[in-house]
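Q: My labmate handed me this sequence with no annotations at all. I'd like to see what the chain might look like in three dimensions before we decide whether it's worth expressing. Could you predict it?
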Amino acid sequence: MEAIINRIIDCSFVDGPGNRTAIFFQGCNYRCTYCHNPETISLCNACGACVAGCPVGALTLTEGKVLWNAAKCIACDSCIHSCPRQASPRVTRMSPEVLMERIAANRPFIHGITVSGGECTLNAEYLLALFPMVHCLGLTCLIDSNGSYSFRRDPELLNACDGVMLDVKSTDAEEYRSLTGAGGTQVLDEAVYLAKHGRLTEVRTVCSPNFLSELTVRRVCERLAPLEAAASVRYRLIAYRPYGVRQPYRGRITPPDAAFMQRLLEIALASGMQNAVIC
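A: Here is what I predict for the chain of 279 residues:
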C-alpha cells in the first residue's frame, strides 16, 4: 500500500494543537477558488510539460512517469507553473511503514501528526493502516478535512483518529458549489456528528466580503454552540489572503479588513462559541 505525499512538515504549530508533524497528501476532490496550495489538487498525468522547463534537470520522463530528483531540486516552482493541470511532480510515493520512519524520527519533539492535503480522506485505507502505528509511539492522529468525507458511514476511521479539523466553507448550497466546484453543504451535519462523538477538534471558515461569511458563521454557531461536546471546539475565522491563490481568482476575492473580521468574531462569541479566534 502506498500513497502520494506532496510534502511533510516535520514540526508545525499551525496544523492542530501542540507541535505536530503535518503530512500533505496529493489529490483533492474539490477545486476551491481560494485554495492556497492548488498544486496539491490534481495528480500528475505524466504529460512531461514540466520536464524541459526544470532549470536544474531535477525532472525526467521515464517509462511514462515523471520522476523527481529531490537532491537536485531547488524548489523554484517552474514545474508547477508549466503544468497544464497545475499539479506538482515533486511528490513521493510512500508506504505507511516508510512514512512511519520519518514520524518516529520526530517523536521526541512532537505531540502527534496531522494528515492534510489535498484531501487526505481520499486515502482512508492508508490512514487506517498508519494511525495504529502512530498510536504505538504515544502520539495522536488528527485529520484535516474539507468536509466531503462521511465519518457517519465510516465508524472505523472515526474511531481510529483522535480528532478532525473541519472546513465549513459555506452553508449556502449555491455559494458552496461556486467556491468548491462540488456540493457539500452536509458538512455542517458532519460537524455536529463529530462533536457529539468527541472527535471535532476544530472548525474553520475562510472569510471575505465576497462570501456569505456572516451567514455561515451564524449557522455554524447555531448548530454547534448548544452542544455540550462543542464547548472545547476551536472555531477559526480565517481572513482570506491572496498568497498562493491561482489566477484568475486572486483579483476577484477581496481580503477582509480588521473591522469585518472583528464583527464575525463578536457574532461567534455572542453565540456561545467561546473558543472562536481570528486567524
